[in-house]
Each structure stands twice: as C-alpha cells, then as structure tokens.
Known about the structure:
The chain has 561 residues and is of the alpha/beta class. It has helices at 31-36, 38-44, 79-91, 110-117, 176-190, 227-231, 237-252, 268-272, 285-288, 304-318, 336-340, 348-359, 389-400, 405-415, 418-421, 452-455, 462-474, 479-484, and strands at 12-15, 48-51, 55-56, 68-72, 95-100, 129-131, 141-142, 150-152, 158-161, 196-199, 225-226, 255-258, 280-281, 325-326, 364-368, 486-489, 497-503, 508-514, 520-523, 530-534, 546-549, 554-558. β12, α8 and β13 (280-281) form a beta-alpha-beta unit. The radius of gyration is 24 Å and the shape is globular. Residues 61, 64, 101, 164, 200-201, 259, 331-332 line the site of 1-deoxynojirimycin.
Amino acid sequence: MIQKKWWHGKVAYQIYPKSFQDTTGNGIGDLRGIIRRLDYLKDLGIDIIWISPCYQSPLADQGYDISDYYKIDPRFGTMEDMEELIAQAKERGISILMDLVVNHCSDEHIWFQKALQDPYGPYGKYFYFEKGVNGQPPNNWRGYFGGSAWEPVPGTDLYYLHLFHKKQPDLNWENPALREEIYQMMSWWMDKGLAGFRIDAIINIKKALPFTDYSYPPDRDDGLASATTMLADAVGIGTFLGEMRDRVFHKYDAFTVGEVFNVKDEELADFIGDNGYFSTMFDFRAAVWGGDPRGWYCSRHITPEDYKSCCFAAQKQMEQIGYLSNIIENHDEPRGVSRYIPAADLSDHAKKLLAIVSFMLRGLPWIYQGQELGMENLPFTSIEEIDDISTLDEYAVARRNGLTAEEALAAVSFYSRDNARTPFQWDASANAGFTEATPWLRVNPNYTRINAAAQIHDPCSVFSCYKALIVLRKDPDYADTIVYGSLEPFREEEENLMAFYRHGKTQTLLILANFRKEPRTVTLPGQCRKVLLNNYDTFSIRNDNTVTLEDYQAVILDISK
Length: 561
Ligand code: NOJ
C-alpha cells in the first residue's frame, strides 16, 4: 500500500496559456485570461493547475525554450499577474504548478550568449560544446525535431548539443554550478507560493558520455540514430534527480509530476515510489502506442482494444509502485477523442465513454484544456496552417520518403501537436470568444457547436459528464474506492468491451464501457446496488441480471455485496 498524499484524491488540469484566453487583443492567451477563467475551473471541480511555460521566451518551441527563468514573457503578462494568479487560485483552493524546463534553455538565454562568447569559460560548461570530427558533428545523434542534434558554432571547430530544436541548447547537468543555478531558480519560484512543478523532458538530463556514434543500423535514411537510443545507455540519472528532490522538493513538500519517457522498468520505484524523485508521472503508454522510428507517416493508429491493453498494462505495472497520472491528451498530442475513438464512431456518447474509463482508472486524472468539452482535432487543409516545429519536421520526413503533399498532410494531421493547441472554444461568438484579434492559430471551425457556453448548463453535455465524474471522485461514500481501490479487469478478452472492477476496502465498483457502435449484452457478476453514472438516459437490469449496453454506452455500478 502506498503512502497516502494530499493530492491523491484531487483532479488536475493543464492550461496551455497561449491558447486559453486572450485579454489584451494580441491574439495570444495570457495570464489575466487565466485569472478571468478561474471560476470556470473552480465550477468544473479542478484542484491543481499546471501552466505550460509562460517565462520569457522567443517561443521557438512555444515557450519550451526559456530565455529568462525569472521573467514572464510580456506577451503573457507580468510577474504581478503571475503573483495575482497564484493568490486568486489559492483563494479558490486551487494549487498552481509551473512547467520546469531544465533539460535545455533558449539559445537567447544569457548563459548561452556568454557561452558562445567564451565556449571554454565558465558558461561554456553550462552546455555541451564538443569539437567536430573531420568537419562533421561530434556524433550521429538525431534530435527529436529532426536533423543532427549538434549545431556548429560559427567561426570555431565546435558544435553544441541540442536534443530538441537548435534554439534549445541542452544544459550540462554534470556541472554542479549549473545544478546550483537550477535549484536556486526552483526555490525562488516555490517561494512565490507554487505547489510544485510539471517537469519537462527530464529523462534527457543524463547523457551517455563520452559522446560516441551509435553504430546500430541507422533508424532512418538520414543515417542518424535517434537520441532515445542513447538514453538506454545513460546511467546515473538518479544522482541528479535525488539531489533535486532533496534540495528543493522535500524542503517545500512540493507536488511534482514528471514527463518521463523511456524510464527503465527497474527504476520506476525510484521515480515515483514512496520516496521517489517525483510525486507522480504521466502514463504515456497509449500516446506512444503505434509509434514508428521511421516517423509519423509510418505510425499505426490505435484501436479501442489497444487502448484497453495500454491502460490495463500501466495499471498492473504501477499498482504496487506508485500513483500514476492519467491523461487523454496534452499539448503534445492530438485530441484524445479524435485519436482513441474511430472517426466514424465519434459522438458525445463516445467522448463521455472515454472520460469515464480514464477517470475511473487508479491514478490522478488530468484534463487538458478543452478536453472537458470534447474538443476535436483540427481538419487541416494545408501545411501552411501548421505552426508546430515537430509537425513540420515530420511532414518533411514523409515527403522525403515519397509521400505526395496530400498524403503527407493527411499522415501528419492525425498526430500534429497543433490539434490540441487551437484556441479554447469559449462560446459561439467570433473566434470562439478566445480573442477579439486574429488568433495566433486557427480556431477549429466546429466552435459554433462545441463550446463552453453551450455546455455548462446542459446536463447532457460532455462538460457535465466530466463534472459528474469529479463530483463522484470526491463523494465521501465512494472516494476511497475510486482513489485507492485496486483495479481488476473484467472480461478482458471480450473485444471492444473495456470493463473493470475497482475494489475498495468495503465496496466494489464495476465500470462497463461498450467501445463500439453495436449494442452488446453483458451478464453482471453481482447484484447492482446503484448506478453511479451512465452516459445514456436509460439503463435497465433484467431479471436474469443481464444488461444491454448501447452504442458507446458506459456505466459505473456499485456492485458491493
Ligand atoms: C516536452 C514538451 O511537452 C514539448 O512541448 C516540448 O517541445 C519538449 N518537451 C521540449 O521541451
């Protein structure tokens, strides 16, 4: 049994500030926009908010390239706005998490500027500068956004390492002076009243050194090897993460959620066990399912059966270790309803089904802005509409591999990060009530139908379903089972039925979700005492204890003895 923590029973929400609410008329969301919408979030039942980066940044990767950790980018507001946001959230019982992006900073950060002036000086040691080999980069690593992970430093024989974009130089965690700077900065933010951090790309801070080529067959025709290959050989990240925990997180009793890919199985307990480096980490199993080293154009689309397997596998793996964070989507993923529900089946019932199964898994449920409305992928009509650097790279990869412009657009549209970054759909007025100016990214044309104003007072809306799930999670009669109960699959082998028990100390809940359009009949494994939630108006139990689940019907039943 894991140690109980204050945040286990909560519900968390991610805000992508650039696309949430513009109040200044520059087409970009801002901190005052978040303040304006705090009551909306309170009404939904949110307890914890993670705000994607709003620090000073050239926005080459939408703020994940920080040029000053101690400043708010003027496009998002001021430090006073941030302080007011933290205070106003607190008044509503909401905790704020900032995004901690410390694998890299921006090439416009003063540290990097000084390092460029004197690569062999103290700031040069904040980064990785290496000599090239015969006029080529120091090794054959490919960055996550395509191309070599090394960028030449003009006028020298040096290159600097950037696992992400070339405007995101990697910080050298081997250097204790750099680590000190980071811990100081983190403490400075915690002193402002944060509850903690979401921690970006953290597995990358430990590199396999010294830098060598990976001679496995190159995974793409560019002859390079993915940086993830190197991560498997990088040993000793725990020294850095343990230090960060002891120096900062423990001192503040911070709540932290790690963005952790590629963690080694044997290290999971070190990451989120009782004295783990982090409080929790996101479960990305379903998000990475079907990925292909050759690129998005070769990735396989996930089916409901695969989704079910991913969820159950993650639950099983973590049950004795720690408390996961469950997501349906985030700012790096397509909209979950467009990904996990076959396009031909998409309906409000299906959207609610997805919400129900995800919320009833053991773990901390997260909502990414707009998910609570059932926001969908954007039907891109041209590559010109795409802003995201990762999608543009994947498009180029697809084209290089022979796809026509049309085919390449179709391939990357499904996965594009911009799907989730379109402006929040507040109402049916111009630009969905997001801005009075031209929005920085196109508003999804379905906003006249899918928007908050149309849903908050409609008891049958997707929003109301999320709200009901949150109320149920906090209901004293059921909270302990929902938050801590063990999960046991029910009729796991039955195709497109996602069903599971949650066993509490004194009660058992059964979640039944018919992940297909055709109805199905199920025999209940016990007497139903109460239907706790149902995404249809009707649900009846026959005398022989069978029930029929309609097209994407999902129910939560109390079947305690
Ligand atoms: C993960 C972030 O979520 C993503 O948006 C970003 O591009 C990379 N890390 C690099 O910071």
